[in-house]
Amino acid sequence: TWTPYAFVETTVAELKEQIGNDKVILGLSGGVDSTVAAVLLHKAIGKHLHCIFVNNGLLRKNEFEDVLEQYKHMGLNVKGVDASARFLDALAGEEDPEKKRKIIGGVFIDVFDDEAHKVEDAKWLAQGTIYPDRIESVSASGGPSAVIKSHHNVGGLPDYMKLKIVEPLKMLFKDEVRRVGATLGIADERLGRHPFPGPGLAIRILGDITREKVAILQEVDAIFINGLREWGLYDDVWQAGAMLLPVHSVGVMGDERTYEKCVALRAVESTDGMTADWVNLPYEFLQKMSNDIINKVPGVNRVVYDISSKPPATIEWE
Ligand code: XMP
What we know:
globular; Rossmann fold; about 20% strand; about 40% helix; GMP synthase activity; GMP synthase [glutamine-hydrolyzing]; binds xanthosine-5'-monophosphate; 2 domains
């Protein structure tokens, strides 16, 4: 039978054997998968692991600074690269969901490649790919009803990088990754984190992306996620976030008519993201979130809750 302890023992031994004294580059995202992959590799090869953490300007509020600090505390050899402007400039004016993903994927590769070249003599690229990532990408490129969404972080390696790929988690499901992480001593708070997509808030801002919209959505998202934590609901939810809709609607503030933005809150239960059900959050909680968001976030005058399951909806709106 599979145990996380045995997995760590075997995998660390295999990684040592496979990699020897080579240098490895790994892109950290702040998520569970890349973090566990990094700690596993660090256990096997120590300072030969060079981690790169890119800020694409589409992360949660304060995420880049907070997570970079945590990685440093974990002893990882990590470089933080703030490339926000490159991503946001490249995205300017683009409304099409798939094009937005492709732009982000493309800029990420460029930024990552620039950084990778700074690590002399690197031989390997490590990725935190897990089993469901591969399934969804394969099926998405397969049949006629094919491309559901392009998961840019699978198979997106440009040829010219010429690095060998190592994916120590590629046979694991999410719950197994978390158990491996716990065995490696990674804090529960980090392991219990909800998944967050590579393209970040870009696929939660419907329509074109501006710095102002990102800032609004970061505030809304922070209120919602902190609210879930404060109300003890965070761990009952597999993933949660907010969507900024390309809709303005009429409201009233004091005696004034307003015509402002609408956000949708989304919270789902799932095991691997392939199917999902919306979570029956308490009305009192939703009421509090709605009041806080509308009172505290200028530019938003309406909050709705998404009650769609996957399928036929998806978790992200784009
Ligand atoms: P959907 O929206 O397809 O999402 O139901 C399923 C899970 O995948 C995440 N997701 C992504 N993760 N790059 C990622 O790293 C992506 O392009 C991407 N698209 C969706 C989503 O957040 C959910 O957990």
